[in-house]
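ESCALATION

Customer reports they have been waiting on this structure for their group meeting. Please prioritize. Original submission:
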Amino acid sequence: MPTAPRSALTAALLMLATPALSEPPTLALPIDCALGQTCYIEDYVDLDPGPGQFDFMCGLKSRDDHRGTDIHLLSFEAMDQGVNVLAAAPGRVAALRDGMPDTPVTEDTRDAIAGRECGNAVRIDHGSGWQTLYCHMKNGSISVTEGQQVDTGTPLGQVGLSGLTNAPHVHLTVLKDGQTVDPFLPEAEPGTCGSISGPGLWETALPYHRAGLFTAAFSTAVPAFDAVKSGAARVTETARDTPLVLYGYVFYAQPGDTMRLTASGPEGEIFSQSETLEAPQAQLFRAYGRRAPEGGWPPGAYRGYVTLERAGQVLANRHADIIVLAE
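Update from on-call: job pushed to the front of the queue and completed.
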């Protein structure tokens, strides 16, 4: 995922420190979904003050300078159906922005959203210097007004694809006196991790899983692991007569975890494959695909999903896109 939002709306996110805590809000899940079933947590606040990154449990599930908690939907179809972003605690709407399109960011569009990386967004003031910020909402979906009082669970808008993102999710940042607070480890000093006790700022402790997915992508043959790790295996356009192979690159899976790889195109599903990991290593990849049918693949857009599950709970999910060219 891209770097955390930086704009006038999120200027307070530019410093990460440990503020003096007072009367913190108790936070509910800021999205109308079921963790592990219809959504999952992809990234946490980066507690490494240097150029690297680590989450509150010293794990890999953050990005350099990431200043929030990212809760992802499992598909673009779920976003299209509509999933509400909810106020995590009572407060007053302090600022909002709407009108940005739901478009996955690319290198060609990154400059066009400079200063508006948070996308369509709402910021809520909870008093005593506490605020929450909700990013990447669906264009035209924001349903509150500036100055409005909201309760825990009040719909603010819907999960979208606006700003600096390429997958449907809500990015929640918690602020105290303008400084980022990790809701999982609110009293953490920068550079410390792994000392969680209790639910943090959450009303109910949220599950944490060390395992996740680095990436998912299409290729035209089962790739070598070195090519997966470097990104050289990724193919985004191909001819009609080539195989379509989807792969997922996993970290810290456990025995019994399941990887599910599915892909569909202009005429519907082209494959669905699940594999139980019997003796996984710290890093691994799995791939599955199909040869081109007689006459070639129908030209157009194809999308794949790689999902990592444990005991029926979704731990991670990544999507991949490829275009089959007409000529």
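Sent to customer with the following note: Residues 76-81 form the longest helix (6 residues).
Escalation resolved.
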